[in-house]
From TrEMBL:
Residue ranges of every copy of the GST N-terminal domain listed in the record: 1-86
UniProt protein name: Glutathione S-transferase N-terminal domain-containing protein
InterPro entries linked to this entry: Glutathione-S-Trfase_C-like, Glutathione-S-Trfase_C_sf, Glutathione_S-Trfase, Glutathione_S-Trfase_N, GST_C, Thioredoxin-like_sf
Pfam families linked: GST_C, GST_N_2
Ranges in coiled-coil conformation: none
Domain of life: Bacteria
Organism of derivation: Candidatus Sulfomarinibacter kjeldsenii
Gene3D superfamilies, sorted: 1.20.1050.10, Glutaredoxin (3.40.30.10)
Domain GST C-terminal: 89-204
Length: 204
């Protein structure tokens, strides 16, 4: 049994989709971010970084209970546990890991900053908006070019797609027109109709 700690957010949605896709047994625990649940001493034992998502696998791969944090690490862990969405051949696996790291180090942080400066900053900061929105556009362009030559980001459906989908689907939040990225649009539609993704999006 896996205890899954989450809240409504793209990073939480990645893990939700992976759990639904793999069919691993899990129990969802809601973390109230505005109440500061993620900074309590009990939660910091699970994720020392004080953020969602995190999991505790009561039957860890090493035999004992294990806590995992950082959505990319959780996706890799669940891929190893389930044997799904991460190829066993070395070249395929490293392709997936390259695109997963690109999501974790590029898409996630840049889109989060773009969203903050566009929608939540207490005062307008035009230079920050310009910096992060133009980087967001560039990153969408990278994925769009990749998807012009492959059906899915690393060739076939993998944890690279599961990591990227929750961030790219909210393109409107960054003022982007998805018509400018037709391959991303096609890919978003294909993923959004997967039953596991529909179930994940239906969780309030
Ligand atoms: N790199 C981390 C980012 C996690 C993250 O930023 N979580 C946000 C929600 S999307 C959070 O918990 N924010 C609450 C806080 O910072 O106190 C991951 O991918 O797991």
């Amino acid at each position: 049994m896996i205890d899954f700690y989450t809240s409504s957010s793209p990073n939480g949605l990645k893990v939700q989709i992976m759990l639904e896709e793999t069919g691993l047994e899990y129990e969802l625990h809601r973390v109230n971010l505005s109440e500061g649940d993620q900074k309590t001493p009990e939660y910091l034992k699970i994720n020392p970084n004080g953020k969602i998502p995190a999991i505790v696998d009561r039957d860890g791969l090493g035999g004992d209970e294990v806590a995992i944090f950082e959505s990319g690490a959780i996706l890799l862990y669940l891929a190893e546990k389930s044997g799904e969405f991460l190829p066993v051949d070395a070249n395929g696996r490293w392709q997936v890991i390259s695109w997963l790291m690109f999501q974790m180090a590029g898409i996630g942080p840049s889109l989060a900053q773009a969203g903050y400066f566009l929608n939540r900053a207490p005062e307008p900061v035009p230079h920050a908006v310009e910096r992060y929105v133009s980087e967001t556009e560039r990153l969408f362009g990278v994925v769009d070019r990749r998807l012009s030559e492959a059906e899915f980001i690393a060739g076939y459906y993998s944890i690279a797609d599961i990591a990227s989908f929750p961030w790219l689907r909210i393109h409107q939040r960054f003022g982007l027109d998805i018509a400018d990225y037709p391959n991303v649009g096609r890919w978003l539609e294909a993923i959004s109709v997967r039953p596991a993704v529909e179930r994940s999006l239906a969780v309030p």
